[in-house]
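Support request, please re-run this one:
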Amino acid sequence: NWKQPLKELSENTGGFAVLDVNDYKKPMARLASDLGGFYEIAYAPSVAAWDGGFRSTDVKVSRGGTKVQHPNGYFATPPDEAGPILAYEMPLLEAFQAAEPKKDFPITAGTFAFGSGPEGREITLVAELPIASFKVTTDPKAQLCKLHFALLALVKDEQGKAVERVSQDYPFQGPLDKLPQLQQGNVVFKRKLAVPPGTYTLELVAQDRESAATSVHRVPLVVAPAEGLAMSSVIIVRRVEPAPAAQPGAPEDPLRGEAMRIVPSLDDPISKAATAKLPVYVIVYPVAGGAAPQMTLEFSSDGKAEGRNSVVLPAADADGRIRFLAPIPIAKYEPGRHELKITVRQGTAQAEEKTAFTLQP
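Re-run finished. Output below.
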């Protein structure tokens, strides 16, 4: 009965359902009447705890012969400037309040800045955590495996005010015979954020809904302005993989092209024996109508210069951006921590970005 859930949804949220009719004049007139005249009632709940639970409400009137439409309840979540808090986010937000944040399993994360939009700099957040960290329940009869976890990321300014919050609840079910292969992989949490220039803290929490195992990860986030000549973050590429065509209307992803997707390194150690060249990706946002930009790559370790290369960049794409993806030879560099600084010049304007990486034998 596919109609009944829709009927319950509309009536439980203060609306009404229109079913099995061909004449929509009366329902539309009622809709116009509801939108044009209604009462708004506010009250202070007697239970002040923000526990995320659902609380039923009822509205009665003393006038006889009156039918009242109203929502049948609400989720007890606290007000938040970053938007309404969802019920499943409550235990995740509470994990941030612990005196000793939990680290029951590893989380790695990276933030990559790209161009600017009306709401601020475009930041792509990528986080990974091993699927093997989560408790799995199995149904041998149905040959199914199930797991359930949730992630939440919060960006806070220097005053501790939340400016961005993104989250995802992941109830997963799959074939039981694929479980060993599944547990060898990672969960990848990827989101686009819009953050004004400034200094922030990125807080990330993941929780296994079955075992309550929880991990909190905090890193500083500095967002520089991108006006005039600008660059994206410098990205060390872990791999480039085929990608299906983007769905119509899908948000732009600066880490993918027409048929491929760039998987960024999240500060993974790099084996010299297995890596002769370091794949690097960066987007240059030149000033329209200006001279051709010039790029310089500089390597250093412990503040000492190790190498320098100049690059002539290609012409900008149709969108005005220059996408630079190239393998950089690293055979001459010794194992240890290194820094790569990329500088782009266009006329008298200059922009630079840095990243660090670790070489292993």
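Helices lie at 3-12, 25-36, 90-95, 179-182. DSSP finds four helices and 20 strands in the chain.
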